[in-house]
Amino acid sequence: MTQFRKLANPAPLGLSAFALTTFVLSLHNGAMGQPFGTPPAIVLGLAFFYGGLCQLLAGMWEFAQNNTFGATAFSSYGGFWMSYAVIISPGFNVLPTLEDAGGTAKSHALGIFLLGWAIMTFIFFLANLRTNLGLCLLFAFLDITFILLCAGDWTSSHNVTKAGGYFGLFTALIAWYIAASDLINHNNSVFSLPNPSLARRNALPVHIEDGKTENGD
């Protein structure tokens, strides 16, 4: 008989990678007031390796766990951070090329990039309405973050971009909380963190035992 090795839960890794990278960038977009197109160089390493590579790996391991949503979400946002790293990396010459195009080419291009991710995030939000409160809040705040950053680029409004940065900070904190709720439990700590379920109460699983369902049919 073939035996398969049981994998650990990759979700805390993916959530932590997303949270830290989002936190650092959002801090500069919001509290420190730098526009989206001119992030600090420190974000580049995080976007490539922690938010990017580690999230992508978490997504691949979610495929092995037979979790389609987790695999799609983690892999997608891992791809987001890697593609963002390419955009801001001097070696790829993306931003200078957009700036050389003149006018509003740079802000329009970045806005379109963010709009696409806002649409994708809204799809993830709809797919989480029956999961738990933490995930619903995470994708709701993340979608607002993308929309505000998109609007900030298209309108060249520094204040709108700052608002997106602050929403990004809240998003990062929510992601960290969900990761902590998975990591901190009564098996390894003296307390656990609540994350209320939003599943329908009447949607109870049917247990099958000895060929009979719960109601004995």
Describe the protein's architecture and organization.
This protein is an all-alpha fold and 217 residues long. It has one domain (11-183). The chain has helices at residues 11-29, 42-64, 68-88, 94-100, 105-126, 133-155, 158-183. The radius of gyration is 20 Å and the shape is globular. Keywords: Membrane, Transmembrane, Transmembrane helix. It is a multi-pass membrane protein. It holds the Pfam family Gpr1_Fun34_YaaH.
What distance lies between the first and last C-alpha atoms, to the nearest angstrom?
31 Å
Overall number of strands: 0
**What is the CA-atom radius of gyration, in angstroms?**
20 Å
What is the number of independent domains? 1
Integer average pLDDT: 88
> Main β-sheet: number of strands, strand sense, barrel status?
none
Task: Find the structural class using helix and strand composition.
Answer: mainly alpha
* SSE string, helices as H and strands as E: HHHHHHH
Into which percent range does the helicity of residues fall? 55-70%
How would you sum up the global shape?
globular
Poorly predicted spans: 204-217
Count the DSSP helices: 7
Strand-residue fraction?
A: under 5%
GO molecular function: acetate transmembrane transporter activity
Pfam family, one: Gpr1_Fun34_YaaH
Subcellular location: Membrane
Main location: membrane
Structural descriptors:
membrane; mainly alpha; 7 helices; 65% helix; 217 residues
In short:
By secondary structure, the protein is an all-alpha fold. Helix content is 65%, strand content 0%.
Write the layout of secondary structure elements.
Blueprint: H1 11-29, H2 42-64, H3 68-88, H4 94-100, H5 105-126, H6 133-155, H7 158-183
